[in-house]
Specification:
Chain A: This is DUF1468 domain-containing protein. The structure holds two protein chains of two kinds. Chain A is an all-alpha fold. Chain A has helices spanning 10-32, 42-64, 88-107, 109-124, 129-150. The chains are: A mainly alpha, B mainly alpha.
Chain lengths: 156, 502
């Protein structure tokens, strides 16, 4: 059990979990109400109740942990500040990922994947343009060969 | 029996199956060794690529990856102090100090040999125990399955991660994810909001790949900067003397490993930690103090986590209850191939069981060969930059998810679970219980309602059943003990000074 101060945003996250659990419990109640223990909604309600109770437990524990605006330096470097919960690179990459998945449907696999690979390699790997292009083409060709031919998987 | 032997040797005599197991084991070692790639991730992505294959071929490949991956995690734990897989966390305690002392080669050699010893022992227990368990399991009533699933979720919730509350939350979240869609008994919609894509439920493969592929990849971006340390690895073949010296401890740890593995919900990661703790308490004169490069601290977790592989197959094949996250995914794979893991699996498809056992023996033999050779190649692969790995993982996750039923809806789910999983990981939630919940949820739901219906809808009747039948009563007692052991009351009852191991 850790008694270190909560991570930035951890309390808020706990409240969000409580709210989400309550919503799910309410939805589960809507399935078949309290009609009988063997109804379709009974088990989902039980699971949602477990979610709610444990989420409340999590919030309770967060509240009992010492509150300090500056967590001690013993915390790993990566979790010391608020931006480190969602560092800029991760947020940016999430956005790239969502854009890629959305574009898959509209632009097609080959075009959007090439762009995605180039952008993400440029984001994460940061080498010369030639290297990036070579890696991207290599990965794309391998994927096309291995999955298109060997596994015979349908690509999006 | 000769029939069983024939099935057992099936993968040994078929060149393509032999090749798949070899390739799987080889790939598994590297997947396990590369920080950022995990066995769970690899197996969940593999399901989607192999579901058009013959079931034997798919199981051969996944079994190889499983065995290789659990072992492979020790490599990076020893060389880089980064456990390649959760099962190798305990390996780093003494493995990395050994590497710092310049004994990385010997450490890898010893860990390879004891891993294989553990692996064989685990398989032996699987081969002997599974047929017996499945016979007992034929007597299980729906309520017993419910109890077993509850025990599994309680175990994984309480033993792994930050706190019981977080473990239970994750497990219950998984159960809810597994509930979405049409109710299997009454065909009522649950959490469907009247939307057609939700009627069929959320694809569990999408959830698995989201939580273990995408979330893990996003999490890795946070650690892009950490670079590996180059180690001098020369001679790795251990002397016979060394092997014999650690054999008793290895066998003892393997027994712990296989038992922990066989418990529903707990796998190699927990087995390794418990075996390490046990070795620390029982070995009186270690080669060096524990934590400073004791070979005993390497032998115990490495034997245990590989022995746990055989153990985790026991509840999966005999009860249809996963032994850990990887076997939860394999159950998903069996479902996709139209098989129903459970007590009838041994009766209806005995060839499958002996085929799996034979394949695992083979995988462990390959492990010995690949583990003790090819170390140069390994150091090259381990240097593969994460900046390249992450986009590849994402790409494989997307292609894999899409290929299950050629549906973009699955890809969106995978993405959503990936992002949710990232935040859960950041706030120290374990993702393993979620997947166990997804697989166990529907099983629990159906078992619960069958149990109630068999009592004509009386909850009281079910409760009295839980304590009046011997099997159910034992399982109920175990579940109650598991809950009690998390309460302050239990801590007060325990002897002072002996703190819980985990």
């Amino acid at each position: 059990m850790t008694n270190s101060p909560p991570l930035p945003g951890e309390r808020g996250f706990g409240y969000a979990l409580v709210a989400a659990s309550a919503l799910i419990l309410w939805l589960a109640f809507g399935i078949s109400g309290l009609s009988s223990a063997s109804s379709a909604g009974a088990f989902p309600m039980a699971a949602a109740a477990v979610m709610l109770v444990s989420a409340i437990g999590i919030v309770h524990r967060n509240r009992r942990r010492p509150h300090s605006p500056r967590p001690p330096t013993t915390a790993p470097r990566s979790v010391r500040t608020g931006t480190d919960i969602l560092p800029r690179e991760v947020a940016l990459y999430m956005a790239i990922l969502i854009a890629y998945v959305v574009s898959l449907e509209h632009v097609g696999f080959l075009a959007s994947t090439s762009v995605f690979l180039l952008v993400s390699l440029w984001q994460l790997h940061r080498r010369s343009a030639v290297t990036l292009l070579a890696v991207a083409i290599g990965v794309l060709l391998t994927i096309q060969m291995v999955f298109g031919t060997l596994f015979q998987v349908q690509l999006p | 029996m000769p029939q069983a032997l024939e099935y057992f040797l099936m993968s040994w005599t078929d060149p393509s199956l032999l090749g798949l197991i070899a390739a799987g084991t080889f790939a598994g070692i590297y997947i396990g060794a590369l920080p950022g790639l995990s066995v769970t991730m690899a197996v969940s992505i593999l399901i989607s690529f192999t579901f058009t294959w013959d079931v034997n071929a798919a199981l051969a490949l996944m079994g190889g990856v499983f065995c290789g991956g659990v072992y492979g995690g020790s490599r990076s734990a020893i060389l880089l102090n980064i456990p390649g897989t959760p099962a190798a966390v305990a390996t780093a305690f003494d493995g990395y100090p050994l590497a710092k002392l310049g004994e990385a080669g010997k450490a890898i050699g010893v860990s390879t040999v004891v891993s294989v010893i553990g692996g064989y022992l685990g398989i032996l227990v699987l081969a002997i125990a599974a047929p017996m368990v499945s016979e007992v399991a034929l007597m299980f009533a729906p309520r017993d399955y419910l109890l077993l699933a509850i025990i599994g979720l309680l175990l994984v919730g309480s033993l792994s991660g930050d706190s019981l509350a977080k473990g239970l939350f994750a497990a219950a979240l998984g159960v809810i994810i597994g509930m979405v869609g049409l109710d299997p008994l009454t065909a009522e919609g649950r959490f469907t909001f009247g939307l057609v894509p939700l009627l069929n439920g959320i694809s569990y493969v999408a959830a698995m790949i989201g939580f273990f592929g995408v979330a893990e990849a996003l999490f890795q971006i946070r650690q892009l900067g950490t670079a590996g340390v180059k180690q001098d690895v020369s001679r790795i073949l251990p002397a016979w003397r060394t092997v014999f010296r650690f054999l008793p401890l290895s066998i003892r740890s393997s027994v712990i490993g296989v038992i922990i593995g066989a418990l529903p919900g707990t796998g190699g990661d927990i087995a390794a930690l418990i075996a390490y703790d046990q070795a620390k308490r029982t070995v009186t004169n270690p080669s060096r103090p524990f934590g400073q490069g004791a070979y005993e601290g390497l032998v115990a977790p490495e034997s245990a986590n590989n022995a746990a592989v055989g153990g985790t197959y026991i509840p999966m094949l005999t009860l249809g209850i996963p032994g850990d996250a990887v076997t939860a995914i394999m159950i998903g794979a069996l479902f996709i191939h139209g098989l129903k893991p459970g007590p009838l699996l041994m009766v209806e498809t005995p060839h499958l069981f002996w085929f799996i056992v034979g394949g695992l023996v083979l995988a462990n033999s390959f492990l010995l060969v690949f583990g003790l050779t090819g170390i140069r190649l390994f150091t090259r692969v381990a240097e593969c930059p994460r900046g390249i790995l992450i986009p590849i993982i994402i790409l494989l996750s997307i292609i894999g998810t899409y290929s299950i039923q050629n549906s973009m809806v699955d890809v969106y789910w995978m993405l959503a679970f990936g992002i949710l999983g990232y935040f859960l990981k950041v706030y120290r939630f374990e993702l393993g219980p979620i997947i166990l919940g997804v697989i166990l949820g529907p099983l629990m739901d159906v078992s619960f309602r069958r149990a109630i219906l068999s009592q004509e809808g009386s909850t009281l009747g079910l409760l009295s059943d839980l304590v009046s039948h011997p099997i159910s009563a034992a399982l109920t007692a175990a579940a109650v003990l598991l809950v009690l052991n998390q309460t302050p009351l239990w801590r007060r009852l325990r002897r002072p000074g002996r703190v819980a191991a985990l």
